[in-house]
Amino acid sequence: MSTGRPAEPTSGDLTRAVRGAETRLLATLAEALASTDHVDAALERLLELAAGLLGGAVAAVAVAEPDSGVLVAGPSRGFDGRPILDEPLPVAGSPDALAIVARESHAAVLPSDHVSPAAARLGIGAGLVLPLVVRRDGADLTVGVLLVAHADGRALTEDETRLAAGIAAIAAAIVERGFLTDAAHARAEWRERLAQVDPLTGLANRRALERVGELEVARAIRQETALAVVVVGIDDYDARAAEAGRPAADAALREVAVAVADGVRLVDTVARLGPAEFVVLAPGSGGETVARRIASAVSSLAPVGDWKVDVSTGVAHVPQDGTSLRDLIDAAGEAIEKARAAAG
Question: Nearest-CA neighbor of 60 among 85, 28, 36?
Answer without folding.
Answer: 85
